[in-house]
From TrEMBL, chain A:
GO terms for molecular function: FAD binding; oxidoreductase activity. Pfam families: FAD_binding_3. One of its GO terms (cellular component) is mitochondrion. InterPro entries: FAD-bd (IPR002938), FAD/NAD-bd_sf (IPR036188), UbiH/COQ6_monooxygenase (IPR051205). The keyword Flavoprotein applies. PANTHER family: UBIQUINONE BIOSYNTHESIS MONOOXYGENASE COQ6, MITOCHONDRIAL (PTHR43876). It comes from Linderina pennispora. Keywords: FAD, Flavoprotein, Oxidoreductase, Ubiquinone. This is Ubiquinone biosynthesis hydrox. The lineage of its organism: Eukaryota, Fungi, Fungi incertae sedis, Zoopagomycota, Kickxellomycotina. Transmembrane segments: none annotated.
From TrEMBL, chain B:
Belongs to the class I-like SAM-binding methyltransferase superfamily. UbiG/COQ3 family. The keyword 4Fe-4S does not apply. SUPFAM superfamilies: S-adenosyl-L-methionine-dependent methyltransferases. GO terms for biological process: methylation. Component of a multi-subunit COQ enzyme complex, composed of at least COQ3, COQ4, COQ5, COQ6, COQ7 and COQ9. It catalyses: a 3-demethylubiquinone + S-adenosyl-L-methionine = a ubiquinone + S-adenosyl-L-homocysteine; a 3,4-dihydroxy-5-(all-trans-polyprenyl)benzoate + S-adenosyl-L-methionine = a 4-hydroxy-3-methoxy-5-(all-trans-polyprenyl)benzoate + S-adenosyl-L-homocysteine + H(+); a 3-demethylubiquinol + S-adenosyl-L-methionine = a ubiquinol + S-adenosyl-L-homocysteine + H(+). This is Ubiquinone biosynthesis O-methyltransferase, mitochondrial.
Length: 429, 287
């Protein structure tokens, strides 16, 4: 990074939701008509790179007795990259759960597949709380010294070109601070203010799904990730240390509301037969009976590493349920992928291109430089979008032949270790 | 062959002839001077570039491969300067003159690496284009000065620099020996001089003239004259005769498909000069 030594970075925190942004803009406009000269008097601060959306605010104490519900699965190669950069070791690694076994079940059919890493000692992925990773990164940035400024608790009020100035965009924050960027990077999510400023459109299927997340307390220690493709959307139980697990469930709006508002103990019970009864149309009585029977069976079993089903759910961490809309849309040019792991690959690609450009004395804000990034990433992101779409449509199908074919495919794949290894390698990439 | 002999002969008898010439062109504000009367810039050459000067910064236009090559040239200059001064993380504070800066491709890049760059070019249009473009990057302010003048005019002002750079220029000047002499004069004692140009070979005729000017029609016809190209041995001899030591020469090989430019060793494998059959960059150090 020698060539970027003099490069100054600024992180502005995640942009506000649309309504709030509009409100801020309007207030700003009002202020501008009242005291136009005062608004213009705020001098611009020039940066080589401004990143809008530096991730969630990471301060505050972390609960010691449970795990936070907002989590990330980091692939092995991305963990290596974060280690190389130096930010991984700044995280609390005791709260990270490596896992090397994934069991995927099909929802309404009977297909199942077990994925192990090719050699036993390799880790497929790491479960980490988002806050843990972000605070590790912020610690790392702190240790880097003067060239990076972190602007916390900031809203983006407006992004615009400034008349009579250089052709660099000016990011105006809620507190009227104005940052002018040679290169503006938007990592501010589906409703990105940077994307709108750059007039980049979106395309793709709007799945109208919601994500429901929660922290589960299991009855046994667990190192396996379980995923079940239900017609309503995939549900995953992902391992954490000390018998905790992270639930990530993609749902349509009505189901999400019901699951989010039901009492926590009832929700914990529901989780126990999630892998058996959801979608079966069973009555509440049947579900309760089934649940009690399962509690018995699971109490006697302790061979969790061989199980096709996750360990019993003892409880749900208080107030750990949370939901958010899933916006699975892609953008039409010059931008990154969705999902953290593809995002880390985007970052690696962009950093490498910017570093080479900086060492050659190029202006890193020019289209000529950024086109190289686009060439490297666009095709892969497009391919990923296609895969997500196909998985989505396959698993949301309930028509008999498709369900049958899906089960056969999953069971068939499970019997071909070579094919599975290829799948696992691709997942780890 | 004839031009080689003439060039080398000129190199040997140059110093005394040159000193009188410099005395006669010295003095006066650079802008008032009639550039066409300069010894090393021919009027025809000047007009040729003026017509395309607006295209300097179009990375897909006539200068597409020059932009690509500029990245590699800059990285080469940067790493060689770091070889000489390992203590410098960047080029901060080093003064560099870019002789024949054109639209400012190399000048801007070197200024961005931290050097104090003076870009000089005899063509008014080039300097205008370079100045306008530099305003688009406020980071360059204070690190980059452009002057419309010739190398001799700067020599006459007795200015010297920590490094002298002249890229893809010498093949356009009327008297290359006199030109190199000016470059050497501009260097402080011990300072490096970087010259990039084209070898006079069958390959350079193809890749530097026939393909870009007559087949791809990317570069205006007549931009280059093959007879003015200079072989690395000739340039080495001129530089050594003028009181410098040639430290390195490497080939600049374009890959038009991936739009990349590679540095290659002068002798690739067992084949002597195989790497410098067309474009090359040479580094010399003033004694």
């Amino acid at each position: 990074m020698a060539g970027l030594n003099a490069t100054r970075f600024a992180f502005a925190a995640r942009a506000l939701k649309r309504a709030q942004t509009r409100f801020s803009t309007r207030r700003l406009a009002t202020a501008a008509t009242a005291t136009e000269s005062a608004a213009a008097a705020q001098p611009v601060e020039r940066y080589d790179i401004v990143i809008v959306g530096g991730g969630p605010h990471a301060a505050g104490s972390r609960p010691a007795d449970t795990f936070l519900n907002r989590t990330l699965q980091i692939t092995a190669s991305n963990k290596l990259y974060l280690e190389k950069v130096g930010s991984w070791s700044m995280c609390n690694t005791e709260r990270v759960q490596p896992y090397d076994r994934v069991v995927a079940l099909d929802g309404s059919g009977s297909g199942r597949i077990e994925l192990n890493t090719p050699s036993g000692d390799v880790t497929a992925a790491y479960m980490i709380e988002t806050k843990n990773l972000v605070s590790g990164m912020l610690k790392f940035i702190d240790a880097q010294g003067a060239n990076i400024d972190v602007v916390e608790k900031a809203k983006v009020a407006n992004i615009a070109h400034e008349a009579g100035s250089v052709d660099w965009p000016v990011v105006t924050l809620g507190n009227k601070r104005r940052l002018q960027a040679r290169l503006l990077v938007g990592t501010d999510g589906g409703n990105s203010s940077v994307r709108k400023f750059a007039d980049i459109g979106t395309y793709g299927t709007d799945y109208e799904q919601y994500g429901l997340i929660a922290t589960l307390c299991l009855e046994q220690l667990n190192r396996t990730a379980y995923q079940r493709f239900l017609p309503e959307g995939p549900v995953a139980v992902l391992p954490f240390p000390n018998g905790f697990a992270n639930l990530v469930w993609s749902l349509p709006a009505d189901l999400m509301r019901a699951l989010k508002t039901m009492p926590e103990d009832a929700f914990a019970l529901l989780m126990q037969y999630l892998y058996g009864l959801v979608g079966s149309g069973a009555s509440e009585r049947e579900i309760m009976d089934e649940t009690k029977w399962r509690l018995d069976v699971f109490a006697k079993s302790n061979a969790s590493e061989e199980n096709w089903l996750p360990p019993n759910v003892a409880a749900i961490s208080p107030k750990s349920r949370m939901s958010f809309p899933l916006r699975l849309r892609s953008v039409d040019r010059l931008v990154g992928s969705r999902g953290l792991n593809m995002g880390i690959e985007d970052v690696q690609s962009l950093v490498q291109i910017l570093e080479q450009a900086a060492l050659a004395g190029e202006d890193i804000g020019t289209v000529g430089v950024l086109e190289r990034y686009n060439r490297q990433r666009y095709v892969r992101n497009l391919a990923m979008q296609g895969v997500v779409d196909k998985v989505w449509h396959t698993f949301s199908a309930t028509a008999g032949p498709i369900v049958k074919a899906r089960s056969m495919l999953m069971n068939g794949l499970d019997r071909f270790p070579a094919a599975k290894d290829i799948l696992v390698k691709n997942m780890m990439m | 062959m004839l031009s080689t002999i003439r060039t080398l002969a000129a190199a040997r008898r140059l110093p005394s002839a040159l000193s009188t010439r410099l005395l006669t062109t010295g003095g006066g504000a650079p802008r008032d001077l009639d550039t066409s009367s300069s010894h090393t810039v021919s009027l025809a050459e000047l007009q040729k570039f003026t017509s395309v000067s607006n295209e300097w910064w179009d990375t897909q236009g006539a200068f597409k491969y020059l932009h690509t090559m500029n990245r590699t040239r800059t990285q080469y200059i940067r790493s060689r300067l770091r070889d000489l001064h390992p203590e410098l993380a960047r080029l901060t504070g080093r003064t560099i003159i870019d002789v024949g800066c054109g639209g400012g491709l190399a000048s801007e890049a070197l200024a961005r690496l931290g050097a104090h760059v003076t870009g000089v070019d005899a063509a008014q249009e080039n300097i205008a284009v370079a100045r306008i473009h530099a305003q688009q990057d406020p980071g360059l302010a204070g690190n980059l000065v452009y002057r419309q003048c010739t190398a001799e005019q700067v020599v006459a002002e007795k200015q010297q620099f920590d490094a002298v750079v002249s890229l893809e220029v010498i093949e356009h000047v009327r008297d290359p020996v006199h030109f190199v002499h000016s470059l050497v004069e501009l260097a402080k004692p011990g300072a490096p001089i970087f010259i990039s140009t084209m070898n006079r070979t069958v390959l350079s005729l193809l890749v530097d003239i026939v393909v870009p000017e007559y087949i791809l029609n990317m570069v205006p016809r007549g931009t280059h004259q093959h007879s003015k190209f200079i072989a690395p041995e000739e340039l080495t001899e001129i530089l050594q005769a003028l009181g410098t030591r040639v430290l390195d020469v490497q080939g600049l090989v374009m890959d038009p498909i991936m739009n990349k430019c590679h540095l290659v060793d002068r002798d690739m494998g067992l084949v002597r000069n195989a790497g410098v059959q067309a474009n090359y960059i040479m580094m010399a150090r003033k004694n």
